[in-house]
Design brief:
The protein is mostly helical. The protein is 84% helix and 0% strand.
Length: 142
């Protein structure tokens, strides 16, 4: 194997490892997100989109902490945690808009149950968040 091919292979392996860990963290974030969404809507009586926005922000924070300390800990650029968190939240805000938009569409236009709509919307937005956060927040070259 040529040196260029080996480096490409190593980059792909690292990308695959990061993707696997990122989505495991994301799975834990789904439980945080849907749990808070359910509690705020059903017990707090809040509107499902407001509950969803609060739940998304909460899961973004737990996901950031887990990704920083586990997923990208060995390969991320050295940066201050608060600066990284700001970038993570900014990028995740894009995902939040995507998620809220799809959730609203699924619930209000297709009469889908709000928790199912939120789950599907999380899955749609997560790909965008992974690629952008891996590169911009954690400073890992594509």
């Amino acid at each position: 194997m040529a040196i260029g091919e080996q480096k490409r292979s190593e980059r792909f392996s690292l990308f695959a490892k990061h993707a696997f860990q990122y989505y495991l963290v994301g799975a834990s974030g789904i439980f945080v997100n849907l749990g808070i969404l359910f509690a705020l809507k059903e017990y707090g009586g809040l509107w499902y989109l407001l509950s969803s926005a609060i739940a998304i922000y909460s899961s973004m924070t737990t996901n950031f902490l887990l990704n920083k300390t586990w997923t990208f800990k060995d390969s991320m650029a050295k940066q201050r945690t608060l600066f990284m968190y700001s970038k993570f939240i900014g990028i995740s805000f894009v995902g939040m808009i995507i998620q809220l938009g799809f959730t609203f569409t699924f619930v209000d236009k297709f009469s889908m149950y709000y928790l199912l709509a939120a789950l599907i919307s999380i899955l749609i937005a997560s790909g965008v968040n992974f690629v952008l956060n891996r590169h911009i927040t954690f400073g890992i070259k594509l």
